[in-house]
Amino acid sequence: AQSVTQPDIHITVSEGASLELRCNYSYGATPYLFWYVQSPGQGLQLLLKYFSGDTLVQGIKGFEAEFKRSQSSFNLRKPSVHWSDAAEYFCAVADTGFQKLVFGTGTRLLVSP
Amino acid sequence: GAVVSQHPSRVICKSGTSVKIECRSLDFQATTMFWYRQFPKQSLMLMATSNEGSKATYEQGVEKDKFLINHASLTLSTLTVTSAHPEDSSFYICSARGQGANYGYTFGSGTRLTVV
């Protein structure tokens, strides 16, 4: 069964600094990978997704992620963080049948002035 | 495109009563809908998957008689929490998936249920 690991529970970044959130997945075949963001008391908003093709994926709000099969990773990056980026970030993987989405435990991003 | 509306956003009910939460896909046909439960500061726990016109498939450990799911149309799924108890208080989120890979999974804004 597929699984997702987000090793960082909390990350604090200074406003304007770069950001990288880590995500490792476990899945035998080619995974479908997603990054979502959740603000307190809200649902999840899709930042970006990877299905196939170019391993560097561009998303909304200036985020990007790189799929590295050899490392089973799909890390999320942003070159310059804004205070409004403070939220919970979830990495998720779906199987090729597009049945369940399996989520990581999430990383809470705090942005310091 | 791909908007999912979830209603209500907050509900308070008395212990022993039932509560219904609606999840609607506004601009696409949702062949599959998912219901999640989220505890404070935790990840999403999948409760069940429902396909239009079929019985829902519940995850292990989820009481199907307590959490009734109906997916009667391609745009509407409902979750009814029956005989609610304080331990059912939680944040419930629905997700809908349309036909084809491009739709991905779209989430509703969630429902905060408080049972008193």
Describe this entry's structure for a reader.
The complex is a heterodimer of chains A (113) and B (116). Chain A has 113 residues and is mostly beta strands. Chain A has strands at 3-5, 10-14, 19-21, 24-26, 32-38, 44-50, 56-58, 64-68, 73-78, 87-94, 101-103, 107-112. Chain A is built from no helices and twelve strands. The model of chain A has no long low-confidence stretch (mean pLDDT 92). The A-B interface holds A 32, 34, 36, 41-46, 49, 51, 90, 94, 98-101, 103-106, 108 and B 4, 6, 32, 34, 41-44, 46, 49, 91, 93, 95, 97, 101, 104-110, 112.
Topology record:
The complex is a heterodimer of chains A (113) and B (116).
Chain A: E1 3-5, E2 10-14, E3 19-21, E4 24-26, E5 32-38, E6 44-50, E7 56-58, E8 64-68, E9 73-78, E10 87-94, E11 101-103, E12 107-112
Parallel strand pairs in A: 2-12
Antiparallel strand pairs in A: 1-4, 3-9, 5-6, 5-10, 7-8, 8-9, 10-11, 10-12
Chain B: E1 4-7, E2 10-13, E3 19-25, E4 30-38, E5 44-51, E6 57-58, E7 67-73, E8 76-81, E9 90-98, E10 106-107, E11 111-115
Parallel strand pairs in B: 2-11
Antiparallel strand pairs in B: 1-3, 3-8, 4-5, 4-9, 5-6, 7-8, 9-10, 9-11
